[in-house]
């Protein structure tokens, strides 16, 4: 969309039969529709700015429903929490677990408001070299960042009860990381949920992707589905186009959105890369993966929240199992989306869709998923009883299972690491593959593998950074307002509809 806005002649080539990639819709037989990946639509401001820059209005194209409660947390250790963006209601919920911690909620919010404000310019700019680190914005933000502290350690300055800390730190899993390792900067993730809301796009997150494809097409972008790129064409180090199963496309510049590590190791000859050779990529840290069940269910589930997160008693052990990858978690935490409670159109009348996500290690040779799949499915269905889903198996009318092996084979994601390269400090900013890709000429990156990182609002920001760099380089008019991430404290842009 942004490149078309600069006047560039844009062609998108996509290997699947649908747009959206990890964020696409699974249109299943029987009339069930599931989000494949993202179900928490957070911080719509970035995408809204992109639509506005293209003369369009996101809120007209997609019905974004703000959830309250935004999710239901159930702790195996005892207790529960109906997370609400309403501060009074939220304080009441936290007080049920720990009255002292409830009193610290306003301080957590105001500190993180300042933190986001300080770090915002860093998220919005490109990191093309180490010298970009000597940036006044970044230097100013450092004292608030506590760069060598983890999310969990930082939260202990506010919350003594480990369950409350979990309520504000499980979001590290959005980056595929452990809250005990994830840099403390990322306490802004939970803050942003409370400040700007957790939204459900009517029709699912795939509806947002469809709206983007529609907008792009209206702006003259050609979208070619079912056309896997089989080769990137080079003259020396300069990319000159791609060859798909349908033919060749020549281009002045190439934007790679497919999974970074998978694309480099499969489509770019190793000898062309200096910094990101196959060997070096192989030694990088990758995020966790997910074991997925997409279930079409007969009957409705009115008592189950839109989002339920079940947090296992020994969370640290669960995380260690995921990080080590030697065995599958025996008593895993899990997440269930019952989207039909808000959006009944996702299933035929009288039916529901259940999306079950269990964080597991990315694909490693020690776990043979062809052998483990059936056993783990049974274990997960049994585990669903913990949130009151005791009779689900006999009501299943459609079922799809996706394992780390499936993410790798079917979705072309390196090692099935669904959240891309890990977001450790040594793999962020200029140390992440750069938006203007440093190893090749005429190649730009967007998506979770480049700066700023994984997650929808952030990958939309990567698109904005990359489009600016590309427009500058190609001498195209950058005729859209730079746009800024929404200043913390301002009201959310979308008309709020509380479900
Ligand atoms: C299970 C799960 C849950 C998640 N939950 C959330 C959430 O709640 N909120 C949130 O904000 N984020 C969430 N995320 C993260 C979010 O999905 C990702 O950050 C984001 O979708 C990554 O986008 P991307 O453009 O980098 O990759 P992708 O969406 O994978 O896009 C890459 C595209 O390239 C295509 N492609 C690959 N190879 C080729 C080829 N050879 N030729 C042509 N095309 C090719 C793919 O088909 C795909 O369309 C979740 C992810 C997963 C997997």
From TrEMBL:
Gene3D superfamilies the record matches: FAD/NAD(P)-binding domain
Residue intervals of the Amine oxidase domain: 3-468
Pathway info: Carotenoid biosynthesis
GO molecular function: oxidoreductase activity, acting on the CH-CH group of donors
UniProt entry keywords in alphabetical sequence: Carotenoid biosynthesis, Oxidoreductase
One Pfam family in the UniProt entry: Amino_oxidase
Source superkingdom: Bacteria
InterPro entries tied to this protein: Amino_oxidase (IPR002937), Carotenoid/retinoid_OxRdtase (IPR014105), FAD/NAD-bd_sf (IPR036188), Phytoene_DH_bac_CS (IPR008150)
UniProt record, GO biological process: carotenoid biosynthetic process
Family of the protein in this entry: Belongs to the carotenoid/retinoid oxidoreductase family.
NCBIfam families tied to this protein: crtI_fam
PANTHER family: PHYTOENE DESATURASE (PTHR43734)
Protein name (database record): Phytoene desaturase
Biological source species: Skermanella aerolata
